[in-house]
Design goal:
The complex is a heterodimer of chains A (449) and B (400).
Chain A: H1 2-24, H2 32-45, E1 54-59, H3 62-74, E2 84-89, E3 94-98, E4 101-106, H4 122-129, E5 141-150, E6 153-163, E7 169-177, E8 180-189, H5 192-232, H6 239-255, H7 260-279, H8 291-311, H9 326-372, H10 381-401, H11 403-420, H12 427-444
Antiparallel strand pairs in A: 1-2, 2-3, 3-4, 4-8, 5-6, 6-7, 7-8
Helix pairs in contact in A: 1-8, 1-12, 3-5, 5-7, 5-9, 6-7, 6-9, 7-9, 8-10, 8-11, 8-12, 9-10, 9-11, 10-11, 11-12
Chain B: H1 3-23, H2 32-42, E1 52-58, E2 62-68, E3 74-81, E4 90-93, H3 104-110, E5 116-121, E6 126-130, E7 133-136, E8 139-142, H4 155-173, H5 180-200, H6 214-238, H7 248-265, H8 268-273, H9 279-305, H10 311-326, H11 331-342, H12 348-367, H13 371-394
The chains are: A alpha+beta (449), B alpha+beta (400).
């Protein structure tokens, strides 16, 4: 029987890993060398030279990206807005792209900026100069021109605009000194109700988050009282482990620039959960390894959920632009796993189970967990539903294998789902490594009854 | 008849009347429902739908009413002075709503010629700000007074929270008999509290902000309130109060303290409670819940100061005076908690419950000018005095 379950689990894992690998092949990936080459080419075309070392930065615009997706979803289509990556050169000059489009450009004022163009010649000059750089410049129309003179040099700012479907628009602002283009900025102007819906939903979910923070704050107070009681009656508590976990979470949160209050809260939550569970709980904490296969499954769920929501006639965003670097993604995953999971899958169920039973306790913890990191959705309750399924699965794992397994599963889940939308992260490599570990776990331990 | 108690009752009543006369310095206010009627009939209209009344707050000069439509895109704030016409409504609008981008001259014309202080470029409109007016796109309104920024946690609130934790720990490590009747009463009080929550959301006017739909706010508030009440009910099981019958002096002292504190301080939030739907539930449920929590904090204070012996009682009393005088709005419950901690074991919960039960009637007696809360407060007062009188006339039968 056990071997049958093991084979089934291995087959499911293989299918999940294969599907994730296929999905990963379609994700946005940043080729740093190609980006730098493109930037140099753009600056070269304008007559400048991109000298010096180049650094590439990513910028995520999650609200704009969600509004964009929502606008297309209302028209029955799927469209994901790429992240913006900016190439900066040490000797001066900065070029930003969104996908294949140039969205920003700054370069130092050339030594010879050329003759001062009169205003009426500006538009044909710019259309000629930017023809190869802004591919769809012909669809933009000139809205206005502003002029100023400074030290004999005439600075001009031309604003172009373009209408897009669904009430969206684009604005292109070009700054010219003499006749040299020195700056360019292309901005997507969202339609008010699309942006308003996304901003409104996010605000509402931030308000709903208060409920989770209140519940977890009360749980932390309960754990504190339990630990004080344990100390008074001279229970053997794992002070060393709790302190190490708390400090680790604290330093991680500080390094990730989370607010001081949030960092201290999660550090205290992790420390007191480890303290209470290690000294007073009768259930074993479990091991990390069994969490890896479930973590991969949860990543697949996260990527599938928007498709399922669409089948139900609802909308959940597909993208989650963050602009995060490799270390930021990894650090955030570790922070959420080590900071939240001991409390959500250990401390809270331990406190609540005597009152509402195991199902009620883990269910409530899953609800609180879902409130902490939801994405905006239409209708709003769907924002919690997808996340709740994942959190409930972590609760199930904690019951079967211990809360440590849930920590590992959460770490894998957060790492891969955060990294999926971070173009600079070697996602396929991480997936391959974790899939190998998951196969090893299933082969060596097997699923338990 | 217990002559001492009967005479003391006269003294207590005299003290209560004195406190009420000292506290009634300002004119009594009308109800928020009356203010709502005046605002909707007399206030200058804005060129948009106000929506439903979501909340109100008591200000020095009158009631401030908050209206928000179901879509949540804007909030209308109307100040209705007690003795003057309602002021022009102020508007708060979500930043993403589209509108016009007016020039300074056009906006000034709409704002009545005031001097401009600046403008904000929103994604799809321009908002102009003047000294007393604002123009949102092309919609003029009074300038919103702005939301009060979070001022941090007061020392009294932090100390009270710490004493609650200390009291919970003290009750867990100590063993004493459990009053099952009180536990059940706490559960019933929590259930009544849940029923009072929907009306109580009117007091959370500051949470209704543009961009967040009112039903989301209401759901979060009711859920958070229910969670807190459930936690208090669970605490009554885990950290039970010491079982004991209330002494006459404890109840009388607590009732007088609550009445005097209410009459002398009359905080605006307590005046606003008089206007919420389900006001009667506020007189029934919260006193027992508040009494239990303040007793728990008092037990924490007593436990922490226990090593000092008799000096602890002096410190608790001095701390209470300090809290009442300099603790701000959180100083009142902190002071009552410290006094409860100074009382003999088992009497603190009755003292705190009596104080909490007469606090609101004390406020309403001096500050409120419409019949409903005065009638409800008087009923509580008569019940309290009647009970004390009956026990005084019967003699010392219920003494522990």
């Amino acid at each position: 029987m056990r071997r049958g379950w093991q084979h089934a689990a291995l087959a499911v894992l293989a299918a999940v890993a294969g599907w994730l690998a296929w999905r990963g092949s379609h994700r946005e990936v940043l080729d740093q060398a190609a980006a730098v080459a493109r930037a140099r080419a753009v600056l070269g075309e304008l007559g400048g030279e991109a000298a010096g070392e180049a650094t590439v930065r990513l910028r995520g615009e999650p609200l704009l990206a969600w509004a964009w997706e929502r606008a297309w979803a209302e028209r029955g289509a799927v469209a994901v807005l790429p992240s913006v990556f900016t190439v900066s050169f040490r000797e001066g000059g900065e070029v930003g792209f969104r996908g294949s489009q140039l969205v920003e450009l700054r370069r130092p004022l050339p030594a010879d900026p050329g003759e001062n163009l009169p205003a009426y010649l500006l538009e044909p000059h710019l259309r000629r100069k930017l023809k190869g750089i802004v591919a769809d410049l012909a669809s933009f129309s000139l809205a206005n021109v502003a002029l100023r003179e400074e030290g004999g040099l005439r600075w001009k700012r031309a604003r172009f605009s373009k209408e897009l479907a669904g009430g969206w628009g684009e604005e292109l602002v070009v700054e010219v000194a003499g006749s040299a283009v020195v700056a360019l900025r292309r901005t997507l102007v969202p339609e008010a109700s699309d942006m308003g819906l996304v901003v409104g939903r996010v605000s509402e979910l931030v308000r709903a988050r208060w409920l989770a923070l209140l519940a977890l704050g009360l749980a932390l107070a309960g754990l504190l009282v339990s630990c004080l009681e344990g100390f008074y009656v001279r229970l053997r508590l794992p002070w060393g482990k709790a302190a190490m976990v708390g400090l680790a979470v604290f330093f991680l949160g500080s390094a990730l620039r989370h607010g001081q209050l949030a960092t201290m809260f999660w550090a205290a939550a992790a420390a007191f959960s480890v303290l209470a569970l290690g000294g007073e709980s009768t259930t074993a904490s479990g091991r990390l390894a069994p969490g890896v296969p479930l973590g991969l499954g949860l990543v697949a769920w996260t990527l599938l959920w928007p498709e399922l929501a669409q089948l139900l006639g609802a909308w959940v965003p597909r993208s989650s632009q963050s602009g995060a670097t490799l270390w930021q993604v990894a650090g955030e995953a570790a922070f959420r796993a080590a900071g939240e999971e001991p409390l959500l899958r250990g401390g809270v169920p331990w406190l609540l189970a005597p009152f509402v039973g195991a199902l009620g306790a883990y269910g409530f913890a899953a609800f609180c967990g879902a409130l902490l990191h939801p994405l905006p959705a239409v209708p709003l309750p769907l924002a919690l539903a997808g996340e709740f399924v994942g959190q409930a699965a972590l609760g199930w794992l904690a019951v079967r294998q211990g809360w440590l397994s849930a920590v590992a599963a959460r770490g894998v889940w957060e790492l891969l789902r955060g990294a999926f939308f971070a173009p600079a992260f070697p996602w396929q490599l991480a997936l391959a490594f974790l899939a190998l570990v998951a196969f090893g776990v299933l082969l060596w331990t097997g699923p338990r009854r | 008849m217990d002559r001492t108690k009967a005479l003391s009752l006269f003294g207590l009543l005299a003290a209560g009347v004195l406190a009420a006369s000292l506290g009634g310095r300002s004119a009594r206010c009308g109800s928020p429902q009356q203010a709502q009627g005046r605002a909707e009939e007399q206030a200058p209209q804005l060129a948009l739908v106000w929506g439903k009344l979501r909340g109100f707050s008591r200000k020095a000069q009158g009631w401030e009413l908050f209206y928000q439509p179901a879509h949540g895109a804007w909030v209308v704030r109307v100040l209705v002075p007690d003795d003057a016409a309602p002021q022009k409504p102020a508007l708060e609008v979500a930043g993403w709503l589209p509108g016009s981008r007016l020039s300074l001259e056009a906006a000034q014309r709409l704002a009545g010629g005031e001097r401009a202080e600046g403008f904000l470029e929103r994604p799809a409109r321009r908002d102009w700000y003047f000294s007393r007016a604002a123009v949102f796109g092309a919609l003029p309104a009074a300038r919103s007074p702005g939301r009060q920024a979070g001022v941090g946690v007061s020392w009294a609130a932090a100390l009270l929270a710490g004493l609650l934790l200390a009291g919970a720990t003290a009750r867990r490590v100590g063993s004493h008999p459990v009053d099952r009747g009180l536990r059940r009463a706490m559960l019933l009080a929590a259930a009544l509290g849940v029923l009072a929550l929907p009306g109580a959301t009117r007091l959370a006017a500051a949470l209704f902000t543009p961009g967040i739909r009112p039903f989301v706010n209401l759901t979060v508030l009711v859920a958070a309130g229910s969670l807190l009440l459930a936690t208090v009910a669970a605490a009554a099981y885990l950290f039970p109060a010491f079982p004991s019958r209330p002494r006459w002096w404890t109840w009388a002292g607590g009732a007088l303290s609550g009445w005097v504190l209410g009459a002398l301080t009359a905080p605006p939030w307590a005046v606003a409670v008089a206007g919420v739907p389900g006001r009667v539930l506020w007189l029934l449920a919260p006193p027992l819940l508040a009494g239990y929590l303040l007793d728990l904090a008092g037990a924490g204070a007593r436990g922490l100061l226990a090593p000092l012996g008799r000096l602890a009682w002096l410190l608790l009393a001095a701390g209470a005076v300090l809290a009442f005088g300099w603790g701000g709005s959180w100083g009142l419950p902190l002071g009552v908690a410290l006094l409860a901690g100074a009382l003999p074991l088992g009497q603190g919960v009755w003292f705190a419950t009596a104080a909490a039960s007469t606090f609101l009637p004390g406020v309403w007696w001096v500050a409120v000018g419409w019949l409903g809360p005065l009638r409800d407060g008087l009923a509580v007062l008569l019940a309290t005095v009647g009970g004390l009188s009956a026990t005084a006339l019967r003699g010392g039968k219920v003494e522990a």
